[in-house]
Design brief:
Blueprint (H helix, E strand, L loop, with lengths): L5 E6 L2 E6 L10 H16 L5 E5 L4 E3 L4 H4 L4 H7 L3 H8 L5 E5 L2 E3 L1 H8 L2 E5 L3 E3 L13 H9 L1 H10 L2 E3 H6 L5 E3 L4 H13 L3 H13 L5 H14 L4 H11 L10
Parallel strand pairs: 2-3, 3-5, 4-6, 5-7, 6-8, 7-10
Antiparallel strand pairs: 1-2, 8-9
Helix pairs in contact: 1-4, 5-6, 6-7
Bound molecules: 4-(N,N-dimethylamino)cinnamoyl-COA (DAK).
């Protein structure tokens, strides 16, 4: 399907979604969020896709929600339509691995979407921030919660209260991003990681993601119990048999996602 605000390309079992409103630095307008939600809903159901990369342009991953669109919103419209809830859920509840490949600005809603992904690979020109306070609001799709969990209270407070940006080095130091690469290597690095993930057993990768995500919702004891139960269940899969047989037989594993 053709989208107006996204470029969606598939290479093997990896799908890349590129946010594509370059003139507005990929500001997240209603059309873009609707299209992103539709694309992810389809990909979640597509058995052939094992991993998704979400990216933007060299200058901006996304500079936040579309301020020009948002300017005239009234409280009751936002409340009744539960604005942004559906698309935010479609990213945060996406069940397969999803990598954010971030170059340039990831601000406001842009930083929040990147944080909803499973991990962030940043180009050396990436800049992260929650500048909503400069607009007389605060982060509204998980920024206060996910940023605090990712970088700790002190830096989350600093970023959300001053509205300042942090560069890629600071973001990596504080644990927001998993690695930094030169800008011209960003997509190749993200694709290598995505292919590696997509080459694993899809159900096992999904369960691994689900278990790590559960650690943010559960006590340690509950989380460890959840992990143990899912680990045990993996021994019902052909892929566990194949993975271990391949190791013993000194050959590459061929997972069948079963
Ligand atoms: N919205 C709309 N247009 C934007 C935009 C944005 N967020 N960011 C940039 N643009 C547009 C600019 O207006 C400009 O358009 P023209 O004037 O050329 O028509 C074009 O993109 C290029 O931008 P600049 O000329 O400003 O480019 P610079 O390189 O000089 O500066 C910048 C880049 C990223 C530093 C600057 O553009 C900037 O500060 N942008 C705004 C960043 C920002 O404040 N982001 C946070 C947005 S608030 C909700 C939950 C959450 C939210 C909303 C609702 N609910 C639950 C309902 C989220 C809110 C946000 O994300």
């Amino acid at each position: 399907m053709a989208y107006k605000t996204l470029e969606v390309t598939t290479e093997g079992a990896v799908c890349t979604i590129k946010l594509n409103r370059p003139k507005a630095l990929n500001a997240l307008c209603a059309e873009l969020t609707q299209e992103l939600s539709e694309a992810l809903t389809k990909l979640d159901k597509d058995d052939k896709i094992g991993c998704v990369i979400l990216t933007g342009s060299d200058k901006a991953f996304a500079a936040g929600a579309d301020i020009k669109e948002m300017q005239s919103w009234e409280y009751l419209d936002i409340y009744k339509n539960d604005l942004f809830a559906k698309y935010a859920e479609s990213v945060a509840r996406f069940r397969k691995p999803i990598i954010a490949a971030v170059a340039g600005y990831a601000l406001g809603g842009g930083c929040e979407i990147a944080m909803m992904c499973d991990f962030i690979i940043a180009a050396d020109n990436a800049k992260f921030g929650q500048p909503e306070i400069n607009l007389g609001v605060m982060p509204g799709i998980g920024g206060t919660q996910r940023l605090a969990r990712a970088v700790g209270k002190s830096k989350a407070m600093d970023l959300c209260l001053t509205g300042r940006m942090m560069d890629a080095e600071e973001a990596e130091r504080s644990g927001l991003v998993s690695r930094i690469v030169p800008l011209d290597e960003l997509m190749e690095t993200a694709m290598d990681a995505a292919k590696k993930i997509a080459g694993q057993s899809q159900p096992i990768a999904m369960m691994t993601k689900e278990t790590i995500d559960a650690s943010f919702e559960m006590s340690l004891t509950q989380g460890i119990q959840f992990e143990r139960r899912l680990f045990q269940s993996m021994f019902t899969t052909n892929d566990q048999k194949e993975g271990m047989a391949a190791f013993v037989e000194k050959r590459a594993a061929h997972f069948k996602n079963k």
